[in-house]
Design a protein that fits this description.
about 300 residues; mainly alpha
Amino acid sequence: MSGRDVADLVLLAALWGASFLFMRLGAAEFGPLPLAFVRVAGASALLLPLLWWRGQGGQLLRHWRPLAVVGVLNSALPFSLFALAALVLGIGLMAIFNATAPLWGALIAWLWLAERPSGTRALGLAVGFAGVVALSIGKADLRPDASGLSPAIGIAACVTATLLYGFAANYARRAAAAVPPLAVATGSQTAAALVLAPLAWWFWPAAAPGARAWVAALLLAVLCTAIAYILYFRLIARVGAARAMSVTFLIPAFAALWGYVFLREVPTPAMVGGCAVILLGTALATGVLRLPWQLPRP
């Protein structure tokens, strides 16, 4: 990877890590569904002109069905679930659970697409999900807090969201493989906005969100969704999908950094340990890390 590619990767991790901060700042005043709507609507408003400028606008009409499915599974539902979790969970903890998305992707590819993993990758799945279970047990308090939700509900929302990410990735591989990446990003955000619009209108808060919540929501849309997608697909084009996916390993660190700087959230030793186990499992399951006996001989 060139210096520019590394810089893009680090910037992408910083932006996606900040998404959990912005959800935390905006969720209480907007509510999960309106916040998710503002996020995808703002992103689609920026991506649509770019798509048409590049002459790919016709892709939206040609492939609207798979793009709509990807929009629901990869944006509308998981963004709403993470916004729900933001009402009750800290930034770092949400980012750690988000890092399990590649694990779900590998597991679903095994069960749905019959892509049987090697022994090492199966070990990675076991290690990663063991980390999820251990971290969940330690944090899954059933008592509701001031938001009326319990941490257990927040954890369940995060896990469900990452499961949807894994399913959406495998669905997109089959149904939208021929669609240009920018069209997938734009079409999915637009479809998510259309799906969430009536729900956002119905659940729109009676009290108008304040300036801080609006700034958080707009930054979430512009920086963490529209610009982040452009960076992500540029990385895929330059260095390949496997290397671009390595951003997964940097996001929890940036999320923890933003949480400490802006909200004084300090990661606990249990969170650090659980994150290490989950990332180790993810590295093995995705082939990023190989055991010594797997390394090619010189």
